[in-house]
Amino acid sequence: MASTVWKGHLTFGLISIPVRMTTAARSERISFNQLHKECHTRVKQPLFCPTHNRIIERSEVVKGYEYEKDQYVLFTEEELDKIEPPSARVMEILEFVKLGEVDPLYFDASYYVAPDEGGVKAYKLLMNAMEESGYAAIAKLTMHQREHIVVIRPSSKGLTLHTMFYSNEIRAAESSSTDNVELKDQERKLAQQLIENLAVPFQPEKYHDTYQDNVRAVIAAKLKGQEVTEVAQPHMAPVIDLMEALKKSLAERQAPAKKPPVRAVEPAASAGPVAVPKRGKKAVG
User: Fold this and answer.
1) Domains plus CATH for the chain?
2) Residue 146 in contact with residue 165, Cβ under 8 Å?
3) Cβ(75)–Cβ(63) below 8 Å
4) Burial zone of 19 (CB within 10 Å; 0-12 exposed, 13-18 middle, 19+ buried)
5) What would the pLDDT profile of 102-159 be if each residue is shown by its tens digit?
6) How far apart are CA 219 and CA 222, in angstroms?
7) Is the dihedral of CA 197, 199, 205, 210 positive or negative?
């Protein structure tokens, strides 16, 4: 069972549901350690106090807020616990909204919300009511010394919670200067056809991190003493004739599918160079 990251009560109106939260997703990536170039020893980063000129224990560390240069207000964990708001224990639903009205730009981390002992019936009632009404819940939740605004939505296996950025944390997008660009009706039609030809049901299991696959292949190759070589990337040029590019794209989509080429990044059984992607120029426009 996944470890619980938050435990408390989810409330709406006078109904209180004991719940616990677990992490729904986390990034998977290959990590590299920092080594000393001369001896390949892993570099350590100890807690060092320059005033006492010695390494200190973690138990000697306190938190401080710098209000002026080298001037700090000190805090202990106990003091920070004392100022926790009610949302540290109770996640109160403030309102319900249509999920489609929430810009995904606001979404941050994802969690599963499961009922705790004594809360199964009220949990199911809330989940079913949200499914039938088509609404998602907005609530506040404090964890890791921060109060989050969250959106809770029903899914096939229970309630899913997403922490969200506050509006002041969202950076304004730069203007793309598209107001004065005119599109031809035929261009719109061909672009729509291309989208329809590429449209499929969403299947997340089809996608994987090619870069991480390449790193694993290179690690295996280097362990076998193989050399690493670069594979040339296609040169991407700006589209000059948009209409012609759309027509060619549609023609390629309608042509019979070709057998995919053998991936060049897989290490060979015998010693020899292994290919990795070479950086090329990105498309413009």
Assistant:
1) 4-27+82-166 (2.40.290.10), 208-285 (no CATH)
2) no
3) yes
4) buried
5) 999 999 999 999 999 999 999 999 999 999 999 999 999 999 888 999 999 999 889 9
6) 5
7) positive
